[in-house]
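Example record

One chain of 72 residues, shown exactly as stored in the release files.
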Amino acid sequence: MSSLEPRSGGRLTRRQRERRAYQLTLATGGLGVAGVVGVVLAVLGVIGAGLPLLLLVLAAVCGLLLRRTLGR
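Predicted structure tokens for this chain:
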């Protein structure tokens, strides 16, 4: 039988998870706002639509990582 002690280094501590969740929250919000503003500017013809769409995809990825970090 293997040791019953938890493995070391495999999981983040509570403090690390909390910090990661905070950083992902800021990144998701910032990328989302920048993406929406970019889409509005693209509709108005000020900029192209490529960058805003990329920002929205990155915001979605950060949101998924946040969900995974929070365990939901």
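Notes: The first helix runs from residue 14 to 43.
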